[in-house]
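Bit of a strange request maybe. I'm writing a small parser for structure token strings and I need a real example to test against, not something I typed by hand. Could someone generate the tokens for this chain?
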Amino acid sequence: MSTELPPGHDHVPAVPDEPIANPGLPAHTWRPTDVDPRAEKRAERQVAALFLLSMVCAVLFLVSYFVFQIGDNPDSFAGLGASNVALGGTLGLALLLIGVGIIQWARKLMGDHELVEMRHPAASPEEDRVATLAALGAGLEESGIARRPLVRNTLFGAMGILLAPAVVMLRDLGPLPGDKLLHTVWTKGMRVVRDVVGTPIKLSDLEIGDLVNAEPEIIFATNSQGEPEYEGVDLQIAKSKAAVVLLRMDPDDIIPGKGRENWSVDGIVCYSKICTHVGCPISLNERTTHHLLCPCHQSTFDLADSGKVIFGPAGRHLPQLPLAVDAEGYLVAQSDFTEPVGPSFWERDSKDIGEQGEGS
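Reply from user aminoacidic:
Good idea to test on real output. This should exercise your parser:
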């Protein structure tokens, strides 16, 4: 192995003693960037220029996203959608230029010398591990990332600005949910009706042990523009989020959470039908224990005790809907749920009822 140093370099990585004679590698030929400071500086500027061009392409991606029209009257280019061509071309070039820049960096500026590695057992001894860490450290030093701030900073800039196209593409997946995940259509006085058939439910309709799948009775009210508030797909989505189960039990079996003393009616309790784990519909009832089992991952909730989790991966109790009876004897909601329904991305900041010792 040649240990000759190029001009301007004062060290070469340590080489362990060779167990056999040098196999006869030809004399090392130094690259122009190793011996000519002007060539080295020129290569450094080339690499930085590639990273800068990547930044320009990433910016052009954002410009293309907002400039080119799509939909009924899309802009076209050579018979193709101009938006797709521009977005694909600019993002592809942004990634390609970063890759080419890194390759040029490695070929022209990083350490250049031959290494001979002898065969060794599969299990690495401790000294080899130490040597590997030392080699990694040497490689980091040889890369020149600390000594070449122009290359380093333009690389970080090119990779950082690529986050902007990623944000735009993720944002384009659909409208932001706003507070739609925090509320349902349940309102004070809204009747609880049977799922599918839509018939309202009276106290006398349920016996102890009965479990009924239910939903809100949505009246086709209109908004300020005279348009229906819920119809078609919007109606089905509203009903799916507000889906509930009713269970009647002996009133003495109910252990109400703090503030929930009047949320049940003569032993009838009402909970969201959507599991708080990943949103599966729940309706498997253990009649004697008042436990509701999710068929997807076996999360189990105690409907007699504020819907708290007693088994499984769910991290939060089932939201409970406060019930009342209207003048005609039908079950109605006292209000909307007092907490979000569905898979619990918010559970990081809330505790289950069993942990708090009180209701929501």
